[in-house]
Amino acid sequence: MKTTSRLEQAIKKLYIAFHSDKLHPECCMQCAVGNILDNKDSWKHLADHHGTTKLNYVGKVHQNLGRKFNGYSPLELLQIEAIFLKACGYKLPLHYRNTKPENPTDKNVQFNGLCAVIVYLCELDGINNIMDYSKLFEFENNKPKYQLAI
């Protein structure tokens, strides 16, 4: 399957962060977007609250100028983060009174967040969900419809 460079880079960074325990939803440098942006937290200045999808003045300026950060627009970055946080079990925007997972660094919590992010990243690039293995189990006349390339 052909993917875009930005998708490959994002998935690679998220994969490394997940397996090296450097993924934390509440940290702007270690969340989904923080990892996609090379563990920098400058993206947090695009919005007033962590988890919102509403750009602030700075975010709107960057968006209107067509700026991209590792291939993603400011609005796309906020969407990625919101999707990640929601799938991890957070009520948005992040606030100490809002609902959140008991253990945000639990691998199952993070995996749920990453799966949702990857679906969105694939949608952005017009690519079928790379994590969808359902086609492998489709069959016709008791035979596999598609062959697994080994």
How would you describe what is shown here?
It is a single chain. It is built from 5 helices and 2 strands; from the N terminus they run H-H-H-H-H-E-E. It is mainly α and 150 residues long. Strands 1-2 form a two-stranded antiparallel ribbon. A hairpin with a 2-residue loop joins strand 1 and strand 2. Helix 1 (5-19) packs antiparallel against helix 5 and helix 4 (74-88) runs antiparallel to helix 5. The mean pLDDT is 91.
What is the end-to-end distance?
14 Å
Work out the strand percent: under 5%
The ordered string of helix (H) and strand (E) elements is HHHHHEE
Rg computed from alpha carbons, rounded to a whole number of angstroms: 17 Å
- Count of discrete domains: 1
In order across it, which strands form the biggest sheet? 1-2
Q: Based on CA inertia axes, which overall geometry fits?
A: globular
Using DSSP, what is the number of strands? 2
What class, by secondary structure content?
mainly alpha
The biggest beta sheet reads:
2 strands, antiparallel
Q: Uncertain runs with pLDDT below 50, 5 residues or more?
A: none
Counting DSSP H or I runs of 4 or more residues, the number of helices is 5
**Average pLDDT, all residues:** 91
Helix content: 40-55%
